[in-house]
Amino acid sequence: MTEQWFTFPIINEIAIEIGPIAIRWYALAYLAGIFTTMLLMNREAKKDSFAFEPEDITRLTNFCVIGIIIGGRFGFVLFYNFDFYISNPIEIFKVWNGGMSFHGGLLGVIIATILTVRKTKIPIFQLSDLLACLAPIGLFLGRIANFINGELYGRITNHPIGIIFPKGGPLPRHPSQLYEAVLEGLLIFIILNGMRIINPKLPSGLITGMFFLLYGLSRIIVEFVREPDKHIGFLGSIGTIQITTGQLLTAPMILIGGMLVYFSLKRNFDSR
Q1: Which residues of the chain have pLDDT under 50?
Q2: For strand 241-243 and strand 236-238, is the pairing parallel, antiparallel, or unpaired?
Q3: What confidence score (pLDDT) does residue 272 get?
Q4: Closest CA to 142 of 20, 7, 36, 250
Q5: What is the largest CA-CA distance in the chain?
Q6: Which of 18, 101, 135, 264 has its Cα between 20 and 30 A from that of 107?
Q7: How far apart are CA 140 and CA 210, in angstroms?
Q8: Inter-helix orientation angle 188-198/124-149, to 10°
Q9: pLDDT value at residue 2
Q10: Any alpha helices (H) in 181-239, and if so which ranges?
Q11: Cα-based torsion angle of the residue sequence 121, 55, 190, 261 in order, rounded to the nearest 10 degrees
Q12: What's the pTM value of the predicted model, to 2 decimals?
């Protein structure tokens, strides 16, 4: 009875292999996201309305790459598999085996932004608002790479959109990676950049707050159909709603985003 379901296309996780060197799609997604964001930020830096120069973007990019790798890796270690890594500390440094956390990577980018601001004296929200508009590009590419790898798939479903993933057993599952690519990547990109196009003089910090708010809502929604990590499972439940690690880590983003939106609008209103 599986003829109605989609079968996951067999795609090699390794995009390029030269001798002992293997470059995975996930790594290319990271590089493409960072490179595209850097190019677009350099283009924006040339406009008179921005207080930073192209060399500032190079500094920010370097800080962000370090922040994403270190933050993403240690976030995964702390949030998702601490017991294993504390018993096998050498495994922490084997990034090529996979295991990155969005929330840890986000913290790394926040620190990178703060360091850049301290070095250049750029208004922090001018920089973070621009970053927020472009970050969905990397999120979109990262989730597509998750799909190619057949990882982070969804829960079992009877809906025709279900896909049978080789790593997920014989039953069809939600392609939650694609849901996240659309919601966290494409949709947020359209909304935030649409806001900037409609009103180029938005209050400082509003875009940053909207990014936190929209990502938080998108991630929490998709977590309802995304399969939790097997070694963690569900953290608990509120009534009939089962709570995942992703939802717990993401909930503060909604609070932070809401506060940033409120105070940016209030500050803009009070200054009139």
Answers
A1: 1-2
A2: antiparallel
A3: 54
A4: 36
A5: 65
A6: 264
A7: 17
A8: 150
A9: 46
A10: 188-198, 206-223
A11: -10
A12: 0.89
